[in-house]
Design brief:
The protein is mostly helical. It is built from four helices and two strands, in the order αααββα. A hairpin with a 2-residue loop joins strand 1 and strand 2. It is elongated and about 55 Å long.
């Protein structure tokens, strides 16, 4: 019989039943999955990312009453990281338009605002500041 090695082996094992039994679950070879985790930002994208994070940090520092002079740094770094992750590492959002020099603007804006504001809230209330008093109030 010319059924192939695997089929002939199963035929011989089940010869007394006179049926051809083929393996139900064939051997599946290991597949290699390659994930794209690269950052594809150009120089202009990095500039927009840094500038947006700095703007959010400065605005957060100017709103309300802060207890430290360095609160804006925490908000800016968090906004930078949130924007970078949302634009570059959440694969479903990478092609979201508009894109400027590799930076998906809408996901970067959303990620930067969410993470930056959350970090500012934690820092502000953790250091004893508030959002109710304004700077320069007499």
């Amino acid at each position: 019989m010319a059924l192939g090695n695997e089929a002939e082996r199963h035929w011989r094992l089940d010869r007394h039943r006179r049926i051809l039994s083929l393996p139900v679950f064939p051997v599946i070879e290991k597949r290699r999955v390659v994930m794209d985790l690269g950052i594809s930002l150009g120089f202009g994208g990095w500039i927009v990312l840094v500038a947006g994070a700095l703007v959010l940090g400065v605005i957060a520092q100017l709103i309300g009453e802060t207890e430290t002079n360095y609160e804006w740094i925490v908000a800016a770094v968090a906004a930078f990281l949130g924007a970078l992750v949302a634009s570059e590492f959440i694969v479903a959002w990478r092609g979201f338009e508009p894109v400027y020099d590799g930076l998906a603007l809408v996901p970067a804006l959303a990620g930067g605002l969410v993470v930056g504001i959350a970090a500012d809230l934690v820092t502000r209330f953790g250091t004893g500041g508030s959002y109710t008093a304004a700077h320069g109030a007499a």
